[in-house]
Design a protein that fits this description.
Blueprint (H helix, E strand, L loop, with lengths): L2 E6 L16 E5 L2 H8 L5 E4 L15 E3 L8 H11 L2 E7 L6 H15 L4 E5 L3 E13 L10 E6 L3 E6 L10 E4 L8 E2 L6 E15 L6 E4 L21
Parallel strand pairs: 1-2, 1-5, 2-3, 3-4, 5-6
Antiparallel strand pairs: 6-7, 7-12, 7-13, 8-11, 8-12, 9-10, 9-12
Organism: Bifidobacterium olomucense
EC number: 2.7.6.2
Pfam families: TPK_B1_binding (PF04265), TPK_catalytic (PF04263)
Amino acid sequence: MSKICVIFGAGEYYAGDPMVPDGAYVVAADGGLDHTRQLGIAPDVIVGDFDSLAGHLPQDGTYTIALPPLKDDPDMLSALKVGWAAGCREFRVYGGLGGRIDHSISCMQLMALLSRHGASGYLYGDGLIVTAITDGSLFFRAHPVPEDGRMVSVFSHSDVSLGVNEPGLKYELRDGTLTNTMVQGVSNEFRDNVDATISVNHGTLIVTFPIEVALPKVDRLHDFDGGIGELDTAVSKLLVR
């Protein structure tokens, strides 16, 4: 089983307290440190340029990676890289959605980045979780579904995603093709006490599902090479001076 990294960002936290599994590696990304303090959670690492931190800067003696404000990698990507370097391949991210829409889109892009390197990422949002899968499947065990239903949506992050299957959902797509300009996969539903799978043979899917549903079992069709890159602590070389 992959080591789990729990990341606290500066975005919205909504209802309910974040869950930190025993033995998880905890990273506070910039203003996420405010949230760990409020929750009484001690992060293993603090990383960021601290432009979104409302409270005081980290105390001496804490493991802090200070980044320049004029950098290429956003704080969340840096936090993912820290967790990756610690051996984590499953990432649960709180505070990565809500607030600025550009930050939310950025975090969704990062879920796709993780999936394309054989890792799993989960963004916890307002009643939902956002994840991504590349060349593989997400298996959701049967569970009770309320009468008003709960939406599960599937989008192609790749230009084209081939061999998309959704057995067990209300609309059972079979061997479908989705593109990144199609919205056919929006507003599907789980069926009451029926196992469901979302899979893609070739491509990357962004998937949203209800927060009360257990995290899926992930299977991949092949091994993935490489990583998500080294931690970058330098000032951006793209700046116009």
